[in-house]
Amino acid sequence: MFAHIIGSEYNQRQNSWELVTLPTIGTAESLVKGAKMLDYAALFVIFFLMVGIAAAIVFLGSLPGKIARQRNHPYPVAVNAASWIGLATGVFWPVAFIWAFLPVPSRSTASSAEAARPNVDTGDLGGRIASLEAAVEQLKTQVEEGTS
């Protein structure tokens, strides 16, 4: 048994000094078992800290991509790739996070090429095409007469 001496005190009845000890802890085997339990508890805490850190990394890496998909961003795959690369390098993750929140242009039914064209009256296109074809045929006959 182990006893830890913490000091001494004077015993007036016996007129002598006595050692003051802590209560007995137990045998050496029980101390070793207690130390092993503390080792297991520390390993348990370290394991769950590592799992928590891994979960936080996965959450942060996929966050800008999820935001971009929810906001119908035109390039959600690029935002997701930039966030994972940025998480690994520490540079592009904030850029990807901001990029995911940028305003998305509204997508209309007309394509951008059609939207860039000026408004043209298409009511008499058939007649205009017919007159242009007649003018081309007339020019062809003039060229053929001039060369022969």
Summarize it.
Helix content is 64%, strand content 9%. With 148 residues, it is mostly helical.
Task: Present the secondary structure layout.
Layout: E1 5-11, E2 16-21, H1 28-70, H2 76-89, H3 93-101, H4 112-116, H5 125-147
Antiparallel strand pairs: 1-2
Task: Describe it.
It is a single chain. By secondary structure, the chain is mainly alpha-helical. The chain contains five helices and two strands, in the order ββααααα. Strands 1-2 form a two-stranded antiparallel ribbon. α1 runs antiparallel to α2 (76-89), α1 packs across α3 (93-101) and α2 (76-89) runs antiparallel to α3 (93-101). It starts with a strand and ends with a helix.
Let me know the average pLDDT: 79
Outline: rod-shaped
Q: Could you give the count of β-strands? A: 2
The level of helicity is 55-70%
- Provide the spatial order of strands within the biggest beta sheet: 1-2
The structural class is mainly alpha
Q: What is the CA-based Rg, rounded?
A: 43 Å
- Topology order in helix (H) and strand (E) letters: EEHHHHH
Euclidean distance between termini CA atoms: 131 Å
Residues in β-strands, percent: 5-15%
Poorly predicted sequence stretches spanning 5 or more consecutive residues: none
Our count of helices gives: 5
* Biggest pleated-sheet summary: 2 strands, antiparallel
